[in-house]
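Moderator note: this is an archived Q&A kept for reference. The question asked for a predicted structure of one protein chain; the sequence and the answer are reproduced below.
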Amino acid sequence: MLSQYLMIGEITKPQGVRGEVKVRPCTCDPDRFEGLETVYIEKGGLYEPLEVRVNRLGTDAVFMNVAGVTDRDAAQKLRGTRLYIDRAHAVELDADSNFITDLYGLRGVADDGRDLGKLTDVMQPGGNDVYVFNGPLGEVLVPALKSVVARVDLEKGEMLLSGKRLDEVAVFDED
């Protein structure tokens, strides 16, 4: 089941003395913060809305004010708070893209019948993402390439992979 909320950032520290906070974006497109007025924070399994005002975008940070936070001490208490948006306000993805959070738990199956287990992590080292599967074959690292990933079926909970390409580019646990 797809999560109704998607994490877009995390408050890392106060910025200045008037309650502004610095946010580390957790999105491929930091511009998605432009015009953002409401985010959600998770408390005890429930998501509560929070009014925000985005002040400026940095190269690797977003600076914003949170409603009711007017000084550095109050901003400090928000350090580590993860910010979410509801799926209805998420950016539109093209047909070949998925939100990373939706990939966790997918079963990796090669077209030659091999079961790679469940997708447990998505590493983002640079050029392309790397999917980490854990299962009967141990840990398997799979580059997120169109030539490797044949199909992602979120409803079925499965990622179909090219067995031939896996043998060429995947890293299999040697234990």
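Archived answer notes: The two ends are 33 Å apart (CA to CA).
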